[in-house]
Amino acid sequence: MKLTAMYVGAVLGPGVLVLPALATEAAGPASLLAWAALLALSVPVAVSFTRLGERHRGGVAGFVRTAFGDRAARPVAWWFYLVGVPFGVLGGALVGGRYVAHALGGGDPALIGVLLPAAAFAANYAGLRVSARAQVLLVGLLAVLLVVAIAANVPHVAPDDFQPFAPNGWLAVGHAAVVLFFAFSGWEAAGNLADEFGDPRRATRRTLVVVAVLYLGLAVTTAGTTSNVPLADLLGRAFGPSARPVVAVAAALLTFGAINTYLAGGARLGGRHGLTGLLVLCGVLTAVTLRLHVELDTLMRVASTALAAVTAAGLAAAVTLLRSRSAAFALACTTLVPAFSGVLLAVPLVIAVAAPAIARVGRRVSARVSARAGSAVRAGRSSS
């Protein structure tokens, strides 16, 4: 049950708060096709990562290392650690902050958003097992809220909500898929945790069912909306005047759950000081984003592009290590996501080229931190 909660927390993240609106803005009701395609793609992706996690250690970077060697694994680790996690954490936090502020009728969304990852960092510093137990409760409450919201709004769905179906053309479905990929990219984060808990296959099956029901329900009930807070509207119809605190709770749960899992998985890639490194990266990115007023859509697309590259690398390893046709099919489909990313494709490409230099810098920083920590310990012993 703990692993299922971690999986659901990673895949069913804060993206459901805003991605329906961003996808509809990109492709109109035709974004439903992107939702359906990515749900179908989730099955071979999830199965491939589960089978890899059962046979090999080290998460996606470890799978790639086993299949192709250290040189290929380095950029994969940095795609996830340097880009996927920080941009995903910040994007999710800002979405959660926006919803909580909307639900409370005021407040600074950015300040609220910063508090959410702070709580997730504290949970992970307390220990993975502690945060996993908390996530079982959080995911259960979240699923109930979403089911109630969907059930209450399905009767209000009308044919007119889907007209015109593709106002921006059919290619726009591909652009919608890029931003939506963020909502389906938790498998590579959860894959880093598979060896911490038992029975990953059962957890995968449960997660696929939960995600399919909730995502399709949200996609259908929000297809015709132009609201920036579509889930708030759904919960408003379901709970009436009492919806505001419910929306605040749902937003906080969604955001915390996803950030918690991404930090837990990313910290393992960073080694001894992985979690502290992520804290620094997220802090710097937050300062730059607020200073330059970077759009939320841009943050989501950068994270999606990097995570698509990570997923594609993991699937390539699955093709080699598992001799899996389903993994080969999933790999072919996944590579279409970066193809629609435009100039953002430069992000994983630049990191891939710079990976050796980044690794050298990381080793030097880690050595200095360790040396200073050792000096502090020795000084403490001598003074006592």
Fold and architecture overview:
The chain is an all-alpha fold and 384 residues long. The protein has a single domain, classed as Amino acid/polyamine transporter I (Up-down Bundle), CATH 1.20.1740. Helices cover 81% and strands 0% of the residues. The protein is built from 17 helices and no strands. Helix 3 crosses helix 14. The chain is globular.
Report the uncertain regions: none
- Number of DSSP-assigned strands: 0
Distance between the termini: 47 Å
Strand content: under 5%
Mean of residue pLDDT values: 80
Q: Structural class of the secondary structure composition? A: mainly alpha
CATH topology: Amino acid/polyamine transporter I
Overall outline: globular
The CATH fourth-level homologous superfamily: Amino acid/polyamine transporter I
Helix content: over 70%
Task: Write the H/E string, N to C.
Answer: HHHHHHHHHHHHHHHHH
The CATH architecture: Up-down Bundle
